[in-house]
Every structure is written in C-alpha cells, then in structure tokens.
Amino acid sequence: MIQKVYKLRFTLLGTAFMLLSMINNVQAQYPGYNLAMVDIVIPESKEICTPNDISISVILANLGERDYDFSIDTIGIGYEVISPKGIISGYLSIRSGGLLSEAMDSITLISGFPIIDAGNYVITAYVISPIDNFCCDDTITRTYYFGMIGLPFDENFSGVNMPDELVSMYLYGVNKWEVYHPVVNDPVQPNSGTGMLRFAGTFGEGAKLTTRQIDLYGTSNPTLKFWYYHDSTSSGTDASNTKVYIVADEVASQELSVRKGNNIHGWKQYTVDLSAYTTAKCVFIEFESLNMSEQYIDRILIFSCDIPVTNYFATICEGAFYTDSNFTNLTQAGIYYDTLQNINGCDSVIELTLTVNSVYFTQISDSISAGNSYDFHGKQLTTGGIHYDTLQTIFGCDSIFELTLTVTSVGIAETHCNASVPRVYPNPAGEQLRIKNYELREDAEYTIYSVVGQVVMEGVLPCRDALQCVSTIDVQHLTNGMYFLKIDGKTVKFVKE
C-alpha cells in the first residue's frame, strides 16, 4: 500500500480534516493526469435561522502523477443545483494557476446562492479536462437540506426523543423541557397520543423550548395551537408560568403568558395568530418557562389556512329546484358560493355553477277532413279538440306541444286565404316551403322549431300584395324530419325530406 500525504491549501470549518481522512489512504497513484472532485462544501450554520444565501465551493484534487498548469491545459467546472423551485446551472473556465500532483484546492462555484424555500437542494459538480486519463471521479453530488419547518407541523410527542424541529435548552438550573411518557397512575396524563412535554425543574429554575425556523413566508392565516396543563390545586404562591414569544427577523414579541395555577384544572388549548409574521424571512417560536413546580405542554400544532376552492357543476330544468348538502332551493342560473370550516377553524370555499335549461311550450293549429287522421308525434288523431304531448330535449327537459285540431266535413271547400290557419305547401317540402294566407301581415316574423322545441331557423316574410299573400322559405339546409312553423301567432306542422 502506498501512503500518500496531500498538501492542503485551505482551511474551511474543519473540512480539511474530513478530506484528509477521506483520501489519505490511496492504494495506488494514477499515472499521467487525473483531476478528481473530492467534495462539495457548504458552510454549516449553527444559527436557528438559515442565511438567505450560501456559498457553494468544490474541493478539486490532483490524484495523478503529473502537475497541472491551467494556463496551458485549460479546465472547466460545471455545476447544477436542483432546488424546490427549479434548476440552476453554470460553468467556470479556469485558464490560470495550476494544481500540483497530490494537492487539493478549493474553488468557489457560487458566492451567494439564494435559499428561500424549505426542502432538498441537490448539487452536482463536474470537472472537464481534455488530458484527464481517468474520468470516473470527475463528478460529485451532494444534497443539502434547508431545514425550515414546513406547514402543517403537528407534534403530539408520542416518540421517545425530542423532535428535530424543537430545541430544548437550560436557562437557570439543571432541568429543561423533555419528552415524558407517564405511567398509568401518574396524576397528569397526555391530552393526545402517548407522550407530552414536561419541565420538571424545581423552584427558581428556568428553561426554554424553541422551534427551528418556520416557513411562514407568503402563507395565509397561519396559526399556532398548543395545549397547556393547569392545576387549580396548586398553591396560590405557585408562580410557575410559560411565556410565548414569536421571534421574527431577530425581533421578539410576547404573545401569551400562561400561569399554571388558576381556576382551570386540566388541559386547555391556546391559540396564537401568526398572520403578522408572514412577510418575515426568519420566524421561530420560543416557550420560555419559569418553575416553582412541574409544567406540562402537549401537542404543538402550526398550520396555515390556505383557502381551497372546490368547483362543481349542476343542471336543472326551468321551473325546478336545486338542493344539495351545501345549497337549498336554487332556481336561477348563476355561480353560488358556500364557506365551510374544518376542525382547525380554516375556511374552505364551495363554488357551484348552476345551469338552468329551458322548458319549451309550442302551440300548433291544424285541420283534417272527416275520415282522415292526423299524425301527432306518432299518435294518429281522428277527433278534433286540444291535444297535448310531451317530449324531452337533449338536456332532459320537457318540451310540451299543444295541438288544436279541427275536423272539417267532407266536401267543404279548402279554407280561404283569410282563414285563421296558414297553409304550407308542398308538404313534405324539399328545398322550398310556401306559405299562403290572406291575413298575413307585411314583415311578418316566422320561427321554425324542431320536434324538441329548439329554434332552428328565423326570418321575416313580406306580403307582395293584399290579394296574393304567398311567400317562400328556403328550407334546403334543414335535415330531414318533422318541424313546426310559427308565423303571425299561428303554428303549423311540416315535414322536410
């Protein structure tokens, strides 16, 4: 085994020692040229709040026998950062300096990379050298986690250890907030789950429980809820209390002060509105406690009331009512809203788009000679009078037809032009439909309906003179079938073929 000693040219928060242990023992030296990516370095922050931007560097090592002179053999270093919001990439060309055999150096890729969103940042760096004899160590990837608490955060302390999102520390004395699982006979039992937090400090001791940075930026109506145990039997001189502070961009604001002894006994829920802190970059919560006797906290819940909107659609027929679990007796078309609340008190919006389809009523007047029959939607009528039939439109709504049928005696002459019912011919019609009636007024409007009551054609018929009121309608574009012509307040049936 060949023992190698590397010349370190930098110092970076102890990273040098890590790198020595990583590449100190190399079994063989690569012949020729070989540049290797050894590590990606991101300075670790010991603060609760992560900085708004970070510096990203790489450690480049020369593991080959030959020295590198970058002014002669230019190299390139590329990088890609996959963040929760997208991908950022770049490339550096290094044309000066060099790297001796068995030496390493630190190269800054990005001096101020913005950190805004919580989540994983996957960083990949690679070196490109045309004379590199060994390429398997040219690329390295590291995942950096930006550890803000995302919403919702709900902790009931059923685990054994303090959750990573919370930091417990001493203020005065030797006790602090700790996860506690009581036995069956303990006087205080958890409000939810199997565990709770206990500050077992004695008289005069103090402790602080702090959340890590919370991602409130841009949220809607964020809220903190927690449960605190009161003991109404405690001494009147027991001043044990917990104060709740919201620290936003290094400014602390006291929101609550809860005293253990009062007229309440048992668990009580407390709520803190966090809406005032949604524009702050760094927000965390502190529970600062002073003891004369034990204190307990159970379940810490932080959530955002982002308002979801649920859209759905419904259709009714004209004259009907629409009712469901959210709306009652709606009759008009339009958009309707209802607001609901979940168990955390957050709103959700229901949006209903209601469509009202028409119900059609069509009146028809016609006549037949005695002994003949009239085809009324498949029914053969032979008697005069008023007859009704109901069909359904393509939307499932009723289309009602009223037929006034007159039966004339055999041998009576055809009704004259001034009769009350228009005459149409030919019937069945091909390309044109003619209308003849002395009572037809000038500029009389007409409408043609399908058998389900839909308007398929509209127009105006002029009368050429008082004695010869004959007009023509071009119906060649209509599909074959039965239709109803309404003109001058009267309706007649015709067939297009």
Please report the first level of CATH classification, the CATH class of the largest domain. Mainly Beta
Number of β-strand runs: 35
Report the uncertain regions.
1-28, 410-418
Helical content class = under 10%
CATH architectural grouping of the largest domain: Sandwich
Find the structural class using helix and strand composition. Answer: mainly beta
What is the overall shape? elongated
The main sheet comes to: 6 strands, antiparallel
The CATH topology of the largest domain comes to Jelly Rolls
The end-to-end distance, rounded to whole angstroms, is 100 Å
Overall radius of gyration: 43 Å
Number of domains: 4
Mean pLDDT: 83
Strand content: over 45%
Q: Helix segment count?
A: 1
3D structure, described in words:
- The protein is an all-beta fold and about 500 residues long.
- It has four domains: about 130 residues, Immunoglobulins (Immunoglobulin-like, Sandwich), CATH 2.60.40.10; about 150 residues, Jelly Rolls (Sandwich); about 50 residues, no CATH class; about 140 residues, Sandwich (Immunoglobulin-like).
- About 0% of the residues lie in helices and about 50% in strands.
- It has one helix and 35 strands.
- The strands form ten sheets. Strands 10, 12, 13, 15, 18 and 20 form a six-stranded antiparallel β-sheet that branches. It has a five-stranded antiparallel β-sheet with strand order 11-14-19-16-17, with no helix packed on it. A four-stranded antiparallel β-sheet has the order 5-4-8-9, with no helix packed on it.
- The N and C termini lie far apart (about 100 Å).
- The N terminus is likely disordered.
